[in-house]
Amino acid sequence: MTASEAAHVTERGAAVQFVNGVVLTMDDRRAVASALAVDGDRIVLVGSDDEVLATRRTGSQVIDLGGRTVVPGMIDAHTHVELTTYSRHFWTDVRGLSRAEILARVAELAAKREPGEWIVMQGTFGQDLPDRRELDRVAPDHPVGVRWSMHKFQLNSAALGVSGLGRHTVVEPGMRVHRDSSGELTGLVEEGWDLLAWSAPLRDALRPAIAETLTELFLRNGVTSIGEVAASATGVRVYQDLARTRNFPRIRLALTAAPGHQPLVDARVFSGLGFETGFGDPHCQIQAIKIFMDGGRDGAFRSNGIGGPAESWGLLSRTLPELTGELAAAMDGGVQVWVHAIGDLAQEVAVSAIEEAARSRATTEHRFRVEHFGNEMYADERMRRLVDAGGIPVPNPGFLYAEPDDPGRRLPPGTTKYGLRTLRSLTGMLPGNSDTAGAQPFTCNPWFVMQSMILRQNKNGVVIDPEEAVGIDEALASFTRDAAFATCQEKDKGTLETGKLADFAVLEADPRSMPVERLDSMTTAATVIGGRVVYGAL
């Protein structure tokens, strides 16, 4: 801020002065201040206590931060709030339970519910879950679905029957139903939750449940903005309802394009409707079109999976020309695209499509993202091509927690995982995100993910590829300035500077000096959105 601008701020004053703190601005210089002044929903001055107190006017409120640390509001660049809400409020959490314990829980629920009523269980990555035969034995009259994740789940016979799935079923691109040697379905399904007759909760039931999830998993941890992959039209309406209250994180919606999980739009048609990225109310806006190029961990389209029968390959939802056409249409419409691509072959299709679309439109100013790029490290050349074409890699370091101890059991075996240092050296950023749909709800805590970025430990404490670790500054930047850029919001969010939105978190400890082993226990004293305390108290 220039001297004349500072004088103008002092002259007109500000409504609120936050003083006596440690303000980590996360700006280009990583400046540290002690106070900030807020007027309306914007920051009007960041500086010393004396400078900020000089902005007082009649009726101003001075808030003593008590020496606490202030950081820009955390931005989760990719998550699934609605699906996580289902797992917390409408499904039964069986994460960490044994196979026998899960079956006992299913039997208990079946005894309490009317025949024909769905029983859905939420497990987690790599968990030992019951098969169709075992589920039939304890719940023959209830449709049962047990989920590892949104990408893979196990059904019993009743669930298959009410959903119309059987020997003659032929699924759409990007899905897979597993069969035994006789051709009968085993009940194991990949990428096909939309095939089921399970009914999502109605709006009035979903609204308080999503509000609770946003409060307990996000606001509690200083998260002020969320990039949400919408799961249903009902969920979109709930986000609009909650946005009107101004009491929850700002939501930026990514709408999945068919074919894919919970598809809400046709990519080309939606791109032509005029809803550019950022359309909507500041508390609920359109962010992106989400395209699933391949499946989850087991359904990723990898070169090492090619060679046997095609039915065992990774799942690919589109050809290169189809994806290129969708991306070109999105460029014309001003809509960001997130491409889910885990395997090396899926990533090659994604990168090639971005290159071709960018060449056809003579632009690299699109910020198209490849989600999960870097979770499995492949050729550096492909990374450079993606960045040169204007793309952004978005890895998911919170998944480190679920990686096997044995490198030979990781996918693909022996590959370097979550190349954070390599990606940051190439791109200058690591967009922070949780990407949970219920399997790992603790990744909604950005401090847990930051801890994973630094320590790189799985759930058993095994350190995975430590050479790819980053430091606390890079980790904090990932959920602030990096995530703001990756969601096209760096003009308003990501740093604490004059003119930006007054979205910030007040912490009980300074993350720079807090032991990394305790980083996931960071306590948020208050979460502030638009200058208002929406969680905690000051």
Write up what this structure looks like:
With 538 residues, the chain is an alpha/beta fold. The protein has three domains: 3-67, Roll (Urease, subunit C, domain 1); 75-82 and 201-490, Alpha-Beta Barrel (TIM Barrel), CATH 3.20.20; 91-195, Diaminopimelate Epimerase, Chain A, domain 1, CATH 3.10.310.70. It is 29% helix and 21% strand. It is built from 15 helices and 24 strands. The protein has helices at 3-12, 49-53, 81-89, 99-112, 132-138, 157-162, 203-218, 233-243, 267-271, 320-333, 344-361, 380-388, 420-427, 446-455, 472-486, and strands at residues 16-19, 22-24, 32-33, 35-39, 42-47, 61-64, 69-72, 74-79, 92-93, 119-122, 144-149, 152-155, 176-179, 185-190, 223-229, 250-256, 280-281, 284-292, 336-340, 369-371, 392-394, 504-507, 524-529, 532-536. Strands 8, 15, 16, 17, 18, 19, 20 and 21 form an eight-stranded mixed beta sheet that branches. A six-stranded mixed beta sheet has the order 3-2-7-22-23-24, with no helix packed on it. β10, α5 and β11 (144-149) form a beta-alpha-beta unit. α3 crosses α7 (203-218). The protein is globular, with a radius of gyration of 24 Å. It starts with a helix and ends with a strand. 52% of the residues are buried. The model has no long low-confidence stretch (mean pLDDT 96).
